[in-house]
Amino acid sequence: MCDTLVSIWKNNPEKNATYFAKNSDREPDEIQLVEYYPRTIRKGKLKVTYIDVDFEYETNAILISRPYWMWGAEMGVNEFGVAIGNEAIFTKRKFRKDGLLGMDLLRIGLEIGKDSKSALNVIVEYLEKYGQGGSNSFTKKEYYDNSFLIADRNEAYVLEIFEKQWRSKKIDKYAAISNIPSNIFLEGNINNIDYKLNKLYSYFGKGNLRYKKTNDFLQNFVDRNDILDIMNLMRSHMKKDYSPKLGSNGDICMHSGYFTRKFQTANSMILENFENFIISWFTFSPNPCISLYKPMFFNLDAIKINYDKNYWEKNKQLHEKIAKLNPKEYKKAMNLTLENQMKINQIVNDAKNKILTGNLNLNFEKIYESILKIDKEHILSLQSIQ
Length: 386
Description:
The protein has 386 residues and is α+β, with helices and mostly antiparallel strands. Helices cover 31% and strands 24% of the residues. The protein has helices at 102-112, 116-130, 199-205, 207-220, 227-234, 309-322, 327-356, 364-385; strands spanning 2-7, 18-26, 32-37, 41-42, 45-47, 52-54, 57-58, 62-67, 75-78, 83-89, 145-151, 156-162, 165-171, 174-177, 264-273, 278-282, 294-298. Strand 15 (264-273) and strand 16 form a beta hairpin. It is globular and about 50 Å long.
């Protein structure tokens, strides 16, 4: 399960920013790492998750969120502002035991694409040459087809793939994808493909509910137009009086539970793509409803990631204890998260306004130190609640 959305700057003329966001929903014990890879030159064969592929390119610098056991990535952005997120589409067909995962295709698109169209083209090239294959789970056999949202600052594409078949459509304003085929393909015959959906998985996955919620949000986003609104969406649940025990696969912020609720949000990413710089927000931990988004000023400062595997694991353990709280107590944890998020956002807004007015003489190390301090205090506060 996952949800991905984009709002092109032309849909947000006042802020002049393209917004891209994804919640990556994975198995609850699967660590997801945020990693930076600089430009490099690859010639010859490249070992991805299951197979070797031909790869003779100078790669782009990329910032990705990657399940620890695979080569590919769930989401990310490259130095040219190309962002990609993918979704599982649950289908009934015979899958190969090896091939390219959707996450492998995503990373290849980021490493080669200089804009959204070229990233789409390279994904299709590798799809047609090697095909999809391999389990998407490290612990069990799990296979699915994929959809992608591929965006740069000026335009985006929805790409859906089935075996080696594909279809795509250009987006000029906004779009969202979830774990179902997109409604944008209902009009006209655009590289039409015949999905044989797994109706049981699709029903329990509730992708239709999340798809409606994200699209409804985007239709009204021009009237909101603030990064905090996107953060609140990515933290949202269906029930007003919420605790993880009452969760649903219809939640944008997903928590694992009984046997039909196997996944949880392992990491969340939000991008603000301005004309000359990108702010990349990640939770670096599960459960965005009680995790803080921390920024990286991609393209402006030297990449130093202060949140590692141990950070992810410790937050997961803490969140499991908090998940046992009743709705009233869990609400305290969510309110505390919002309060501390606003402190971080104020620091980032001050820096952002300076950059937008031409002041690039910022002490990023000091900015990150202030944010780290808020995050540490936030974790201590959560510990006191549980």
